[in-house]
């Protein structure tokens, strides 16, 4: 099954299909029941159900006419002021089809809108409230200007918990006849990081290779280092085997095709779980943040990672 068909198959069509956002579902169900929807702002990390929730609202409100009554724009592609002044404004000023008195305009990635476009959107939201409701989806609500936030009911989505991720794994495994063992489930939880979209993408890719989903297959498909490999790097550095730690880190990065920014996030997780005394652990977490910032600013990855390993090695030395 290709990606588009897979996504359509598992996309929720009713509120009961939304996993992990029960409090938000209850409030939105009440809005839909009374056909009285305010402008909405959904904020939260990627892959937790913001777009799916917006489409479920549309399907429940308009039933069979939902496609004719909504417009869905990805603001990261169409984010200029002209789109707001033309395409969005023309849609907002026309009446809806059916019993619901308003249409819906879904703006995905709305935190990518320029400030000028957001100012134009503010006026459009104000002028056409009677004929159109806006649903803004954003990873970072702080990038949405205050006048727009004050016009919206803000809903903050949270990452999916481990039991919720397992529930999705079980549902997909049963539907696709996949065998997912306990270790494979833990690996899926590790690589997905509460992101349902990422979870389903990894599962789909693994299912193409084999119906028996294994831990090794997951880490290979997801292109992330196994936790034991990263843990070995830290243990070598702590035992003052700096050269071996450096060689193991380089080998791990090359084997999985990882960038410096990818591996440092895994190093930071393993530092937290290491047996270093608390004071040194705090120092190393600070160093991880500093090194990550340097790399994001363009510093050489290998030099910076070596600097981090040297700090880990110093932390392992006896006073």
Characterization of this structure:
- The protein has 15 helices and 7 strands.
- Helix 7 (162-176) packs parallel to helix 9 (196-209), helix 9 (196-209) packs across helix 10 and helix 11 packs across helix 13.
- A 5-stranded parallel β-sheet has the order 2-3-4-1-5, sandwiched between helices.
- It folds into 3 domains: 3-156, P-loop containing nucleotide triphosphate hydrolases (Rossmann fold, 3-Layer(aba) Sandwich); 162-222, Helicase, Ruva Protein, domain 3, CATH 1.10.8.60; 227-316, Zinc Finger, Delta Prime, domain 3 (Up-down Bundle).
- The protein starts with a helix and ends with a helix.
- It is globular.
- The protein is α/β, with parallel strands linked by helices.
- Helix 4 links the parallel strand 2 and strand 3.
- The mean pLDDT is 85.
- The chain has helices at 3-9, 22-33, 50-62, 81-92, 115-127, 146-151, 162-176, 182-192, 196-209, 215-222, 227-238, 242-256, 260-273, 278-296, 301-316, and strands at residues 39-43, 70-74, 103-108, 132-138, 152-156, 179-180, 212-213.
- Helices cover 59% and strands 10% of the residues.
Q: Give the end-to-end Cα distance, rounded to a whole number of Å.
A: 59 Å
Count the DSSP helices.
Answer: 15
* Poorly predicted ranges: none
Total count of strands: 7
Gross CATH architecture of the largest domain: 3-Layer(aba) Sandwich
Q: Could you state the CATH homologous superfamily of the largest domain?
A: P-loop containing nucleotide triphosphate hydrolases
CATH topology of the largest domain: Rossmann fold
Characterize the overall form: globular
Q: Supply the number of structural domains.
A: 3
Mean pLDDT: 85
Radius of gyration: 24 Å
> Biggest sheet, in brief?
5 strands, parallel
Sequence of strands across the biggest β-sheet: 2-3-4-1-5
Strand content: 5-15%
For the record, the CATH class of the largest domain is Alpha Beta
